[in-house]
Amino acid sequence: MFKIRTHPQRLLAISRLRTIGLLFLSGFFCLAPALVWFGFRAFNWLVVIVCLILSRFSFLRYESSLIEFEKARSGVEAEDLIARVLKDLPRGWNVQANVPLSGCGDADFFLRSPTNRAFVLEVKGHAGKITFDGTELVRRQGRRTKAFEKNFVLQVTEQSVVLQNRFCMSVTPVLVFTRAKLPRTKNRIGNVVLLEKSQLIDFLRESESDSSV
Hints:
The protein is of the alpha+beta class. The chain contains four helices and nine strands; from the N terminus they run ααββββββαβββα. Strand 1 and strand 2 (106-112) form a beta hairpin. The protein is globular, with a radius of gyration of 23 Å. It starts with 8 loop residues before the first helix and ends in a 6-residue tail after the last helix. The relative contact order is 0.12.
């Protein structure tokens, strides 16, 4: 039976966090001018300096929260996109989204084929050109090349181990990028399969008849 279970409330929760941060920032900037005015009137330069420092801190904190919000939103949108792609799988596939895993967060997707082959998908919404420098994945955007914020290969490998122990079956770890471009000559790092969004369905279908996957 083919089914997808998603958690749309995740994006709502993230949006609420951003709204709370914006309200805090707005409230402080409404109060700050009054405090600065009071400081000038009372010739209390300490109050003025403290207000300016707090204003700068609040702005940087909100800017950081906004960046984190955009990252989280990009991740949720990427997962929603892959959920729609997976609907093209033939009848008989079982797909679960956001599977809780002890010690390593949750798996974006856990798939079981009609022949009982299993896959764990870790979805990434990053853009750019992805390469492997021999030790880790790196991303090139324009002339800049930089490492990712975490080791995605290790992340999805750990998820596959947890699922293997839970279900007593082999689980293939797969990294899926919805916007990035991957090298055509290397689509594996160890046991981890690297795929672009457009390659996912063909890979899963072919794996049904390929014993090497």
